[in-house]
Amino acid sequence: MTIQFKALPTEDVRALQRGGPDAYGLTPERKISDGDSVPCRHCLGNVAEGDGYLILAYRPFPELQPYAETGPIFLHADECERAAETEALPDMLESSDYIVRGYGADDRIVYGSGGVIPTHDITVRAETLFERDDIAYVHVRSARNNCYQCRIERA
Fold first, then answer.
1. ∠ at Cα 142 (71, 37), nearest 5°?
2. Domain end position, chosen among 76, 105, 124
3. Is the pTM of this model over 0.90?
4. What is the Cα gyration radius of the chain?
5. Mind listing the pLDDT tens digit for each residue in 36-94?
6. Domain containing residue 49
7. Residues 14 and 54 in one domain
8. pLDDT by residue (tens digit) across 67-78?
9. CA distance linking residue 26 with residue 6, whole number of Å
10. What is d(CA 120, CA 118) in angstroms, rounded to the nearest whole number?
11. Separation of alpha carbons 153 and 133, rounded Å
12. Cα dihedral: 75, 76, 82, 86 (round 10)
């Protein structure tokens, strides 16, 4: 099976980079990167030392419901190119492990699908989850803070 790692949609990111409100209706905070683990969810790379970035609340779900988790993410403050949809593990996934969890077509967690997975096994875990008919897509989240990293879909 082929999978694709997907970054945030450019249209959504440009609105935030231009000062649009985040998931809580707030203007994103602007910071300067020290070059240490500031992963942009649009280009799926790290924000370089000295470059500006945004911190904002993001909800990767189309509507509010009990499983629609909202949390902090980082984006480049200036426009960056959206990462290509590919089966290659994104460069920004530098931690030793991540939460990998399946969601149904109703955008709700599929119980029993989540786990803390070593980074080098994320692709295999996603492919295994997609063998199930009840998994529509997969999230990769921080194993320490549960922050949304990216989405995986069937190719």
1. 95
2. 76
3. yes
4. 15
5. 889 999 999 999 999 999 999 999 999 999 999 999 999 999 999 999 999 999 999 99
6. 9-76
7. yes
8. 999 999 999 999
9. 25
10. 6
11. 13
12. -60
